[in-house]
Amino acid sequence: MAEISDREALIASAERMGLPPVHWGGLMSYESGLNPNRWGGAGGRHVGLIQFGPAEQKAFGVTGNETFQEQLPKAEAFMLSRGYQPGMGLMQAYSTVNAGSPGRLNASDAKNGGMPGTVADKVNNQFGPHFKRAAAFLGGDFTPTMPAGTNDAAPSAPFGFHPPPAGGDTAAPQTPAAAPDDTADIAAILRTLMPRQQEQPAAAPQEAPAAAPMPMPEPMAAPQFDAAKAFALLPATARRRA
Known about the structure:
By secondary structure, the chain is an all-alpha fold. It has helices spanning 6-17, 21-32, 54-60, 68-81, 90-99, 119-125, 128-137, 186-193, 227-233, 236-241; strands at 39-40, 46-47. The protein has a domain at 6-151: Orthogonal Bundle (Lysozyme).
């Protein structure tokens, strides 16, 4: 069987784990710098690519003397034995390595000699340089994208790399033109279907009736002078004088 390179071994291992190679490599870089012989942790008792503890060293036959390719299957076996399932994503993978099982994103191993922060803190805020190290290990020179959630979709670019845009600055996205509004004018359609009422000619304005003339007062008759009656009304003395 032809020998393969460590790069090819990492890509094959990441495929089995359902992770982008740059994520699986970045996780192991954070733990060990991709060095299967590195000892560390509390008391210097942890070793290997994912820093196997003393019990795990015994369970999976890790001695710290394995090559990179020899230790990769042991790291995979540890992950699967703790409940990780391929395709769960980077956040759950690191929860399995750091906290012993998936789903413990708020756990922290700071009291046991680990770096400060929870599982989620470390992935979101401390993994960046290790993604770059993994990219270089895989033969790339592009900056990988940081994971945004607990379930990371596999990237479309090779090894999870996202190359910079050619020609410098990326052109601003063009806003698509708004589609013309072809909605039917319901009101206009209804107006065409409604029967039209015949227009009545406007009535000519009627003049107000003229006011009736005021009746003229009848002329008063001139009083008739009754000389006899007037004479009768005179006092007796006056009558005698007459």
